[in-house]
Fold each of these.
Amino acid sequence: MEIQNSAQAVGGPEQVYINGLAGGRFQMQRCADCSQAVFYPRCVCPHCGGAALEWFTPTGEGVVYATTTVYRDAEQGGDYNVCLVDLQEGARMMSRVAEISPRHVRIGMRVSARIVGEGEAAQVVFVPSGVAA
């Protein structure tokens, strides 16, 4: 799904991203000048400095690049994973791997994106590839 230049959108590119997630759509930007995928949403391409960023829907497939476990008491929600995922499109994003113990998340693990939460609290998390939605 292509939309207009995010620099012209009300609230800027971050708000376009948040609104997409709230509507159940994971979107990223791609630079029309250098064809590189861009994440986190911005107004200028970090690869070439171009301002022609267009929105597209990524596959959501990726590989865990780095991972760590944040340890918390059970009454605070328990332990959780924080990771960097290299998306198939070439961008890297910080998120977490859900639906498995944080201790089982491994570098090189194939993962698939899911949107969890509702409204402006919606966010992208990953699950090990092959896990049913």
Note: Strands lie at 28-31, 37-38, 53-56, 61-70, 80-87, 92-95, 110-116, 123-128.
Amino acid sequence: MVQEILRQEEHARSPQWLLVDTFGELDGNYTIVDWGGHPKEFLSLDKAVKGAAAKIRQAVTMVARSREPLTAAGAGRHVEVYPHIVGARLHGVQVWSGTDDQTPPPRPRVGAWDINLTTLTALGSPEWAELADIPEEQRGQERSLANMFAQVQTDEGELIAMKRIIAAVPGSTYQGIWTVHRRDGSSFRSHFSCRIYEQPVDGAVHRIARGISQEVATGSDGRPEPLVLLEHRLLEADVPAGEYRALINLRNLRLIRWVHGSPIPEQIAWRGIADEPAPEVHPDDHRTMIDMAKGLAKSSTTGRLRVRGVDGGWVPITARVSLVAIDQETTAGLVKFTIDR
């Protein structure tokens, strides 16, 4: 009995999994963003694990080259490394290091992702697709940022996140804990960390948020903690029947997300997935759309537009756009529209 208690205490003191971000820049300047299920604010590798920092860097180099998990044992040590890759880039690794008589605890569920802040599209790793329960037909391909947000419940930090998306300043970082809803009705709390980079894409320079997320514990009752949403600051009343509401980036007039409480129009193409036409405004209506955006400097604007439908045709809408202050420096457009019958 005494030996069993001692073994349990030893297990409680055993090393935990580290989540180390690399975000595809294999320069050795890695940070810890989660330690044993406890989120960390970009904790310096050298300051946190001085003795193991060099070995972790070596492990990062090895899994970046092999693109496969690594298990190493010898000289009384046992090391496990699991890479998280999006496209060709290693976004981070999960690392466990202990003695050869210790057993690693269960590896936390982690997924990596990219958000192209220029095109407002998102791409997740296979682990993220599994964790978030993304439909099979949408895995491994880019989808619209609004499609990603459609399954995410945000926290009080959404104002900051919206500013990061709209301003897209290279080098800026962001962390938060949001709730992700799965198709089976379940949900989980996801702590994410990301950094914005400039990256060449098809001959142009795009701004990309490279990120990694880990499932974290919920409250004591097993449910996510109460959240304060951006939309509570945008909207005071319920959405009237037949009206749709969305937040758009005024720099490129692209959809960021649907407003919570708004229905999602099934006949309009917006998801940015392979089996759906690309989101688009009719070419003859571009001038109207641009004039509406410019007019926001004075007041809300109204206009009639045709947008691409899921069947490839054009869906006529009547839209009213209002300027929304994310903060003193950053604005977005709140679009309220109805579909013309």
Note: The two ends are 76 Å apart (CA to CA).
Amino acid sequence: MSPDETPHGKTETKLVYMANQIATFFKTQPAGEAVQGVATHINKFWEPRMQRQLFAIIDHGGSGLNPLVLEAASLIHRPAPDEEIKSA
């Protein structure tokens, strides 16, 4: 595994940055719409690998994530772990 793929590498920093940009875009919407907007965007445009990495960050405390991203997490589709995909 390259350093970019570790939980504390560049990939994590980039994902947090990207998720926070999405939250910043939607934060001017009414609360319910903002949460749904963040979740819908991530569900539509992020590949499962990115979503898995986002949930790994969330599952380890969500450090650095905008509260709107954390609130939207329950609406974001959690993809199957890598191991389940490989064994299918």
Note: Confidence is low (pLDDT under 50) at residues 1-7.
